[in-house]
């Protein structure tokens, strides 16, 4: 039996939003996921080191969520792929993102 150990991927570690997110909803952070996560991989999003829950196919909560590259399809956790964009809803979250904030995405890949 061959054991294949998944790799822990940290994408754009210490990335910052491309602009301040201080108004509106469903704002593109300018951060993309660089590799497709393994099936059933947990995806951790850290904002300044604090873990935030990733929303599963909806933008109706205080959590960040992923859109496909065309920005028309909200992804479920199981369908997140390379080049998907991280979006943030500052109204539901109750706080703004600044360009000085540090956002990290941590997940496993094959």
Number of strands: 7
Strand proportion, as a percent range, falls in 25-35%
Helix content: under 10%
Query: If you average the pLDDT, what whole number results?
Result: 78
Total domain units = 1
CA radius of gyration: 14 Å
Shape: globular
Termini separation comes to 17 Å
Number of H/I helices? 1
Q: List the helices and strands in order.
A: EEEEEEHE
The biggest beta sheet is recorded as: 4 strands, antiparallel
Pick out the low-confidence regions: none
Structural class: mainly beta
The largest sheet has its strands arranged as 1-7-3-4
In words, what does this structure look like?
The structure is a single chain. The protein has 110 residues and is mainly β. It has one domain (7-109). The chain has one helix at residues 90-93; strands at 7-15, 27-32, 44-47, 50-52, 65-67, 85-88, 103-109. The two termini are 17 Å apart. The model has no long low-confidence stretch (mean pLDDT 78).
Annotate the secondary structure layout.
Blueprint: E1 7-15, E2 27-32, E3 44-47, E4 50-52, E5 65-67, E6 85-88, H1 90-93, E7 103-109
Antiparallel strand pairs: 1-7, 2-6, 3-4, 3-7, 5-6
Give me some keywords for this one.
mainly beta, four-stranded antiparallel β-sheet, 110 residues, single chain, 1 helix
